[in-house]
Amino acid sequence: LSQVAVLAGYDIAPYEDERVAVLVVADEDEMPASVVDNLIAQSEAPHDVVVGVAPGAASGRVPDGVTMVAQKPDGDRAQRFADLAASTDAPWVLIADSAHTYRLDHLADLAVARRWTSADVIGAPTGSDSAHRYVSRVQPHGALVRRDLVVEHGWDDSASDPTQARLAALGATFYTPGR
Fold it and tell me: Quick one: which H or E segment has residue 153?
């Protein structure tokens, strides 16, 4: 049906709304350009890249598709991610860590897994397990999470247990496509 809609002039995704915004909390005064470049270059392009930076840090050229949001650098990480998630309308967010680079197909792998699972959080396993399956938690950074969960409850990518335990207690489900 989506192909028929395209022929009729409507832009309708073949699946549900799959837009993903990548969220990054800058740990330094300046976000390294290589981090942003790596996120923009993903084989499945994100809808938006939202970067939380210290006020005044976004004084240079900002790449297309990147939104800089001024945040207190010493603020609570979970709240900083909640604020970034609230600034986008994409239904999914990828929690990216400014200290990591991701394989160019990282987002695509998670997006494919999202199509055949009803999980609320999709990410790398916490151990050495490489099976596709539902789990009790995932690696906190590089995870694909329903935006409304992050807006309401935050996401602490440096201390995953409290955030993920709280979400699981509320009924959120976690899935890993393995390594």
Answer: helix 147-153
In which residue are the tokens 């916490």 written? 126
Of the candidates 83, 54, 76, 36, the residue with the CA atom closest to the CA atom of residue 157 = 76
pTM beyond 0.90, yes or no:
no
- pLDDT tens for the chain, 179 residues long, are 556 767 788 766 555 578 899 999 987 666 667 777 888 888 888 888 999 988 876 656 677 778 888 888 888 889 999 999 999 999 999 999 888 888 889 999 998 888 888 999 999 888 776 778 889 989 998 999 999 999 999 998 877 678 999 999 999 999 998 76
Q: How far is CA 57 from CA 48, 75, 97, 123, in A?
A: 19, 16, 18, 30
Q: How would DSSP label each residue in 120-147? A: SEE---SSS--S-EEES---SSSEEEEH
List the one residue out of 70, 114, 113, 60 whose CA is nearest residue 90. Answer: 114
